[in-house]
Specification:
about 20% strand; about 300 residues; 6-stranded parallel beta sheet; alpha/beta; 4-stranded parallel beta sheet; 10 helices
Length: about 300
């Protein structure tokens, strides 16, 4: 009889537990933090950043809304307005151009939405909580130094730039110019905007090699375009031209191992996405943050 009573009591307790676990969340339960991530997705680099952001948000029980401006400043400004209207708790922002998003960040400031700047710089005249990302300038310096060593510190080189006026383009072009100050025997004979278009790179390399048959090296903003330049040089029978990219993609690393690409700098886009989300969550929770959380950008060679 005692055993039956124990069983009966146990069944009642199990029933009560089941009722609690299956019930709806109690009133007043905390909603997941909502983070807007305003960026571009026009390159595998940014796809990796998006993957990092989504993974970090999932691990932390937050939600993240990715909006893709495709390097269009006006579109990004509208997307930020939409995020404000949605009432997100924080925004991670990869500014398409430094000065073009100042007013948008001011609008976020007015809405009291904390802003985390990721990967690229934003112009002055607005407030943001912190910056995180690899140092694009130092990444450019790393790639430029690889190139200088590969060509023996002398000869003609060319530069393929990304979209003119963007923060990374300005930083990477400056990085090359600064490194070249220590190499007076290196001459920059051409600067060509590739705008993320691999076909444009392939076409331009043909013209470049015809005009400068003694070209020794090519400094390229971005791994996909560096790989395109490498393929074009190989197709033209110019396998001895040193070519460096930036980003550290898996394809670039494979090409470095194979000897078809000289080097690159590793910018860790997935970690940039993760770091942005982590810092956004801390900002929403009222934690005090430093003004910058840089991510190392080491060189990669064979």
């Amino acid at each position: 009889m005692i055993r039956l009573n124990h069983v009966f009591v146990g069944l009642i307790m199990l029933s009560a537990l089941a009722t609690v676990s299956c019930s709806k969340p109690q009133a007043g339960a905390k909603k997941p933090i909502r983070i807007g991530f305003a960026m571009t997705l026009n390159d595998p680099y940014w796809e990796s950043m998006q993957a990092g952001a989504r993974s970090e948000a999932f691990n932390d029980g937050a939600t993240v809304t990715i909006v893709d401006a495709g390097e269009d400043v006006q579109k990004q400004a509208q997307e930020i307005n939409d995020l404000i209207a949605q009432g997100v708790d924080a925004v991670c922002l990869v500014p398409m151009k430094p000065d073009g998003l100042v007013n948008s960040v001011r609008a976020l400031n007015a809405a009291k939405i904390p802003v985390i700047i990721v990967n690229r710089e934003v112009g002055s005249g607005c407030d943001y909580v912190t910056y995180t990302g690899t140092d694009v300038y130092q990444g450019g310096v790393a790639s430029a130094k690889i190139l200088m060593k590969a060509i023996g510190g002398k000869g003609q080189i060319a530069e393929f730039q990304q979209i003119l006026g963007t923060g990374p383009q300005i930083a990477r072009t400056k990085a090359l110019a600064d490194v070249m100050k220590d190499y007076p025997d290196v001459k920059l004979v051409a600067q060509i905007p590739h705008e993320g278009n691999n076909d444009k790179v392939v076409s331009a390399v043909g013209t470049l090699l015809s005009k400068y048959p003694d070209l020794k090296g090519i400094y390229v903003h971005g791994d996909p375009q560096a790989l395109a330049a490498s393929q074009a040089c190989i197709a033209a029978g110019k396998k001895d031209i040193a070519i460096v990219g930036m980003g550290g993609s898996n394809d670039a690393i494979a090409a470095i191992k194979a000897g078809t690409l000289t080097g690159t700098s590793y910018q860790k886009p997935e970690e940039e996405g993760r770091s942005g989300v982590r810092l956004a969550l801390k900002a929403v929770n009222g934690e005090k943050l430093e003004k910058s959380y840089p991510i190392p950008c080491p060189p990669i060679t064979k």
